[in-house]
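Long-time lurker, first post.

We've been arguing in lab meeting about whether zinc ion would sit comfortably in this protein at all. Half the group thinks yes, half thinks no, and nobody has a model to point at. So I'm putting the question to the forum: if I give you the sequence and the SMILES, can you give me back a predicted structure of the complex? Inputs are below. Any interpretation is welcome too.
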Amino acid sequence: MNGVLNETTNKIHRHETSRSDFQTTCGATTHVAHDHLRLVAIERAVSDADVTKCGRCFADGSGY
Ligand SMILES: [Zn+2]
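Top reply:
Settle the argument with this. Predicted structure of the protein with zinc ion, as tokens:
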């Protein structure tokens, strides 16, 4: 499953697959420049120690 990585905050969000481009479940990336967003596999993103899960997109995440 793909998520949307905000490279400025190192936060991974759940990708809203029914929507175009970088829409996320929590909507936090709506106003982030697309230059800073990347579609990545969630499992791969969280294997990076610097990346944290969004608390609104994931039950086991924190902050947003
Ligand atoms: Zn989120």
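For your lab meeting: The chain has one helix and four strands. Residues 2-53 form one domain. Whichever side wins, do check it experimentally.
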